[in-house]
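Structure request: Protein ATP11, mitochondrial, Rhizoctonia solani.
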Amino acid sequence: MNHLRLRLQLVHPRRLPLARPIYFHTYAPRYNIAQKYGEKLKQRAQETGAKDVDELRERVRRELEAEKARQRTEEPTPGSNQSVKNAPQGNNPPALALKARKDSSPIKPLDTILNVSKLLLSSPPLTSTQLGALWTAYHARKEGVLCAVVPLDMYGQLLDRARQYNQFVVPLPRGAKSAEAGEQAEGGTEIFFIEWTVHHSPILPNPNVDELGLPIFPPTENPIPKGSNPPILTLLFTPLQEYKHRQSFAAPHLAVTLYTDLATTHGVVLLRGEITPAQSGDGRWLLGQEEAQALVVAMQKFYLPGIGEGAKEREELLKCFYERPKEFKWERLLELSDIGIKL
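Returned structure:
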């Protein structure tokens, strides 16, 4: 079975909230577009025949609304894999501009992590391999983040399973060595409750809109991609005992987001996970970096079982947890969840 390659570093506590997962209720700093880009806006208004900047803004707004309406009519029905299967798998996607969401979505937009619009307008355009290398290199400079580049066909399988079985449990051996302190943690096994949420499908990039959201003049010859991106997934890992006591108020120890903004154009999904710091604020973490990676690998064993040894048994146990909970065997979960950490 093939596992995702993850890269982990520790994150400074100030980068993360103390109670809730980092992807919720975040925002990007606001700035005055007219003040910063006033001359460029006036020039673009003249080039497009608009009498002033206000008329230009209104034109852009109408065009974006029309594009959103078009994509809504083409979006596949829930449960359909059309958007995943029809996306190109090649390494040479077109250079397209991508706008960050400006609605009330709880997902931290990918464009607030990377300058995606500028990135996609590079010449020559980035290949899937180059995009993956950039994603990994970006997180190598960040502390406390784990990341991966997920092939689109693998993401399609994961999305299907997450929709069908949006909750499960995985064990975590509490015996990994701390990468920072070099000390052995206490032994034992802790059960983590995992919960998937399926979110919106990101809007496809528009080749005729630049990074400011203004129409490119003259228009490019790049066609607007057809179809739609698959939905974004988020995954929370919370200790089972804490979840039982606090339910929705329980603090996840690890929050993972799988970004599909570039799925149609590049054929890959970008995974990003962040560890929650302890509320003491003294630089301690609710999980060690090896433990966080182990949780993601344990999830894969059941949601991407493959065809190797124990694959059918893991698939059946996942199904049993959801459909026949009284028959679920905790001993069997431990047997099938070897994640390679010695106690």
